[in-house]
Amino acid sequence: MALLSILSRLEDPRRGPAKRYGLSEIVVMAICAVLCGADDWVEVAEWCEDEEAWLKGFLELPYGTPSHDTFGDVFRVLDPHVFESCFREWIGGLVGVVKDIIALDGKTVRGSKDGAVAPLHLVSAYATSLGLTLGQEGSAGKGNELKAIRALLDTLVLDGCIVTTDALGCQTDIAAAIVEKGGDYVLAVKANQKTLSEALVESFETGERLGWGAADVRYQTTVEKDHGRLETRRAVWVPRIDWLPEEILKAWPTLAAVGMIETTQEKGKDEGATISTDRRYFIMSRGVATVGDFTRAVRAHWGIESMHWVLDVTFREDACRVRKDEAARNLSLLRKITLAMLRLDTAYPKSSLRQRRNRASRKPLYRAELLGLRQRTQANTRKSSK
Fold it and tell me: Starting at the edge strand that comes first in sequence, how are the strands of the sheet with 162-165 ordered?
């Protein structure tokens, strides 16, 4: 479904003369501007003013384009939950039902800090093979991330998916919710789950030293060499867990396997070489059925970090000082909408996201294709001008 049609369902919170600019048209103009390089409301307004003639080929705009104050005021009061539901409907229409590794992770929008008010923290669900955000939920600071994760899970279709999180998301109710919705999980384990973490560390150390006995243990090793660094990644996957303490098995009824990934990095040569080793521990549900499933999920989880990097480097998210009311959260979603458009582009598959964004600014036809905008008919144009 066309984005403009979906956005027409947004409820307008404004009253009286403030409604002279249509809400869906304001949102579409902002998406166009962000796609073409605008990073705050002043740049959005300036781009729209410069491209007014082009915008009128798709939108009515009887009063021209809004000022930056109007853009700021609208996105401060726009309900982000409704806006995000429109986004989920739109992205779902583009990609259909996703059967993928879905990474859940949070990012703090550092520039949104407003005096004593903590900066906005957003948890995103990221389809790793597509490179697309499927949804986001906001929280008041990183300390409230768990609430956002739980709310985000309620909005996702998880049949056939493997959900990954960092250690913060390793919670019994989150694991249960994923499985109840038809998904599987690979959850990192650290000291926030002290009993579980200590049991895994002790068991893997003992198993490595004395052997695993009757346990069906599988291994996978990969080696990468790049820029003078040699990295060896060794995965150990154990699908038999009856040796775990009874209290852990009762607390985690959907737990079906555990795993460890040991990463050894060697930098330099000969006497100047330095070697570092790191071990990470994971739990997973029954659908993660092989050591390959396990390592693929862990590796794929880092894709969401690449999205965070793109938001900071290509869209300059952390440098943006938009911070009042709901404006920062809504602007973050505008970035993710345009990022999805750029990711789904097939016209220039070898171009970087930055190059595609610059090309959208320069080439009106390419821009309209990315946005899915349709030229208004001459009859509609004449009618709106009367």
Answer: 132-139, 120-127, 101-109, 162-165, 184-189, 274-284, 257-267, 229-238, 218-226
Torsion of CA 206, 208, 209, 212, to 10 degrees: 70
User: Residue 260 pairs with which residues in a beta bridge?
Assistant: 236, 281
> Which residue has tokens 């930056």?
68
Residue 386: per-residue pLDDT: 38
- The better pLDDT of the pair 174, 228 is held by 174
Query: Which regions of 52-131 does DSSP assign to beta strands (E)?
Result: 101-109, 120-127
CB-based contacts of 39-44 (< 8 A; 24+ apart in sequence): 39/315, 39/316, 39/319, 39/320, 40/320, 40/321, 40/322, 40/331, 41/68, 41/69, 41/71, 41/72, 41/75, 41/322, 41/327, 42/68, 44/68, 44/71
Residue 82 one-letter amino acid: V
Q: What is the pLDDT of residues 217-269, one digit of tens each?
A: 999 999 988 777 889 999 999 998 988 999 999 999 999 999 999 999 988 77
The answer to whether the CB of 282 falls within 8 A of the CB of 260 is yes
In the block, tokens 């008010």 appear at 117
Look up the pTM and report it: 0.89
Whether residue 379 has pLDDT greater than 70:
no
Provide the mean pLDDT of the chain: 91
Phi, psi of 62 (to 5 degrees): -65, -20
